[in-house]
């Protein structure tokens, strides 16, 4: 059975929550949302999921569908308490990200007079300093993977280290998933490393689409294949409308 690029991306995102335990999954984007649901239904049953507003769901509805069973109430103040105590693993997006994992979602250009205004800093600094954080980037390019971000929103390893123990104590960037591969920071200087390639992608393609020098191991594995059960869950239970392919079309 042919596996699409979008489905490999779902697997890559789902793996961010492997062995996460009983924490709140906060996926941002269609593919991460499918990935979190897949993880909950397979290898991470302890994950907590929300309806995107203020309810914890006991079931795992399809993307875009309403939950059938609500098991808890999670208003904003309680959500912030989970963030501050590290009981959450968020997967955010990034308009820019650099080799140390510094992320920008605020503006392009000088922050005092930006060329383009984006989302704003939002909760990115608190997320990255208090709970595990991963990133999902559906369009891997040199415009996103940059040498230096225009403004730091999510805190990377170099800036956390410069800020000292209060910043590094709970700082953990798990991994970065894109439409080309998976990346982490498992290097001596905590810079980005190519962890796996999605099938059909080459190391050269990734290097050409990245605006800084990646750490590239001598042998780079491919992102793992979804199991038959995982494929069935993705296609028939979690995303029967095929929303994943709108975010990651076939190359």
Automatic annotation (TrEMBL):
Entries under SUPFAM superfamilies matching the protein: NagB/RpiA/CoA transferase-like
Signal peptide: none
Gene3D superfamilies named in the record: Glutaconate Coenzyme A-transferase
MF (Gene Ontology): CoA-transferase activity
One of the Pfam families matching this protein, by short name: CoA_trans
Secreted as UniProt keyword: no
Family that this chain belongs to: Belongs to the 3-oxoacid CoA-transferase subunit B family.
Name of the protein in question: CoA-transferase
């Amino acid at each position: 059975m042919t596996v699409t690029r979008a489905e490999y991306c779902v697997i890559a995102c789902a793996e961010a929550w492997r062995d996460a335990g009983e924490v709140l999954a906060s996926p941002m984007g269609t593919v991460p949302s499918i990935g979190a649901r897949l993880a909950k239904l397979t290898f991470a049953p302890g994950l907590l999921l929300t309806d995107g507003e203020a309810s914890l769901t006991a079931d795992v509805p399809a993307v875009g569908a309403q939950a059938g069973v609500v098991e808890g109430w999670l208003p904003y103040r309680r959500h912030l308490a989970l963030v501050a105590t590290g009981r959450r693993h968020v997967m955010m997006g990034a308009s820019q990200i650099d080799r140390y994992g510094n992320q920008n979602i605020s503006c392009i250009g000088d922050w005092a007079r930006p060329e383009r205004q984006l989302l704003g800093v939002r909760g990115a600094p608190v997320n990255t300093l208090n709970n595990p954080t991963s990133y999902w980037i559906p369009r891997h390019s040199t415009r996103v993977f940059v040498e230096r971000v225009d403004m730091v929103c999510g805190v990377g390893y170099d800036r956390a280290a410069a800020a000292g123990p209060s910043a590094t104590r709970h700082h953990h960037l798990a991994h970065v998933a894109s439409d080309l591969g998976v990346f982490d920071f498992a290097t001596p200087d905590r810079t980005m490393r190519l962890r796996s390639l999605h099938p059909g992608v080459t190391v050269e393609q990734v290097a050409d689409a990245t605006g800084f020098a990646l750490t590239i191991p001598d042998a780079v594995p491919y992102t793992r294949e979804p199991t038959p059960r995982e494929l069935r869950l993705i296609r028939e239970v979690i995303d029967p409308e095929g929303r994943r392919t709108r975010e990651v079309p076939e190359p």
